[in-house]
Amino acid sequence: MAKKPQVTLHPTKNSMNENLRTSMVELLQKHLASSIDLAYSAKQAHWNVKGPNFMSVHLLFDQLHEEAEEYVDSIAERLTALGGQARGTVQAASQASLLEPYPLDLVDSMGHLKRLADNYATWGGALRDAIKEADEAGDDLTADLFTAVGRGIDKSLYFLESHFQHA
């Protein structure tokens, strides 16, 4: 089992107490890792998708990657605004992500759509928990960030699931 990295805070004039900032940095790190993982899962699908609906899903996967990159940046900036040091490398993300590893052998569009939907659903649930945790800790701004990201994740999940849901 990997050792949990020690949180070191940089000096800041942020008015939140150090214990709260430390706990929020730890929470944000988990979600930074997951957002990086999600962004590159979408890119993996974008690069490797095959099938009759290639162009539409190829473009969707690229759009999902770009949106996830915005989540990465927003989460990392909140984390560093609290005095944290973002652990944003692919190696760090792979150790801390809440998502299951994305299969490297998928090619058909339906397989990618369903697998990405699983990732979006998993992270969406974790974001709901993070909203509650930040809210209960008294960090409304971090809760608000997670709410905004969660709203986007739910919308993307809807776009993914619409490909395989039937009336």
Find the structural class using helix and strand composition. mainly alpha
Unreliable sequence segments: none
Shape: elongated
C-alpha end-to-end distance: 45 Å
DSSP, total strands: 0
Q: How big is the Rg?
A: 17 Å
**Beta-strand percent range:** under 5%
Q: What is the quaternary state of this protein? A: single chain
- Helix count, DSSP H or I runs of 4 or more residues: 5
- Please bin the fraction of helical residues: over 70%
Series of H and E elements:
HHHHH
Q: Residue-averaged pLDDT, rounded?
A: 94
Let me know the largest β-sheet. none
Describe the structure.
- It contains five helices and no strands.
- The model has no long low-confidence stretch (mean pLDDT 94).
- The chain is 70% helix and 0% strand.
- It has helices at residues 18-48, 54-81, 90-96, 109-137, 140-161.
- It has 167 residues and is mostly helical.
Keywords:
elongated; 167 residues; mainly alpha
Give the helices and strands, then pairings:
Blueprint: H1 18-48, H2 54-81, H3 90-96, H4 109-137, H5 140-161
